[in-house]
Amino acid sequence: MAGKGFSRDPVANDACGGWMVPSGSSDELETLVRELSGWIEEKDRASREFKDYQECVDFIKRVRKSEASAKYFKEFPYKRDGTVMREMWFRDPKAPESTKQWVVVHIHYADKYSEDRANRRQSQLVSSITQVNLRHCTVHRTEGHGRTSCYPTLMHGLYLQDRGFPIFRNDTGWNWYRDKISNSTQDGTFQIISKIAEAQMWFPGDPQIIR
Question: From CA 148, how far away is CA 163, in angstroms rounded?
Answer without folding.
Answer: 9
